[in-house]
Amino acid sequence: MSVTVSIKVRKELVELADKMIKLGLAKSKSHAFNIMIERGLKEVLKEVEFWESMYRDVEELKKQKFVLRHGNLNKLLEEDRSR
Questions:
Q1: With 0-12 CB in 10 A as exposed, 13-18 as middle and 19+ as buried, what is 31?
Q2: Domains of the chain: which residue ranges?
Q3: How distant, in Å, are the alpha carbons of 20, 24, 69 from that of 55?
Q4: pLDDT for res 2
């Protein structure tokens, strides 16, 4: 059973909750705050930083017009290993 509680939090935590929603790690701010409470802030920060890095890398690959066809990742990795 859920209970509504009003609290004041630092602006940084609200921004973190917004990032979690944007990255698909939480469905809502309420969900994001529950995750922060359950997992701990340090663990959540690590996960958000990881996914932000992944999104930045993907955007960089898109800018370079890099195309990776579904299912060919293993072939690409095997070719790279054989060099």
A1: middle
A2: 11-82
A3: 13, 12, 18
A4: 87
pTM over 0.85: no
End-to-end CA distance of the chain: 57
Tokens representing residue 22 in the block = 């944007």
Task: Find the farthest-apart pair of alpha carbons in the chain and give their distance in angstroms, rounded.
Answer: 59
Residue 52 CA to residue 48 CA, distance in Å, equals 6
Two tokens at 59? 């955007």
54-58-60-64 Cα dihedral, nearest 10 degrees: 150
- How many whole angstroms from its chain centre is CA 49? 7
